[in-house]
Amino acid sequence: MEAIECVLILLDDVDIRHLSVEWLRRQIGLVSQEPNLFAGTVVENIRIGKPEAELEEVEQSAKQADAHNFILNLPEVNSCLNISHCPHSHST
């Protein structure tokens, strides 16, 4: 493999060498392409980031992720996103 001698990386037409390293690092994220499967219900999985989330927040999160309709078509034991179908919903 040949070594690269000169590379110009632009971010919004700005050479990244002119940007603050700290600022640039805060702008970059990594999304793994490997899926992670967790045990538990869909609701429990959505609550991983906020365990105390009310069911209404969980439902809103599913809608924002465009997963709500998919989840509603799962077997009832897994979906539990409709408040009336979730006898063991978490409340704080």
Automatic annotation (TrEMBL):
| SUPFAM superfamilies in the cross-refs | P-loop containing nucleoside triphosphate hydrolases
- What InterPro entries does this protein map onto? P-loop_NTPase, Type_1_exporter
Cellular component terms per the entry's GO annotation: plasma membrane
What would be an example GO MF term here?
ATPase-coupled transmembrane transporter activity
Name under which the protein is recorded = ABC transporter domain-containing protein
Q: Give the organism the record lists.
A: Mesocestoides corti (Flatworm)
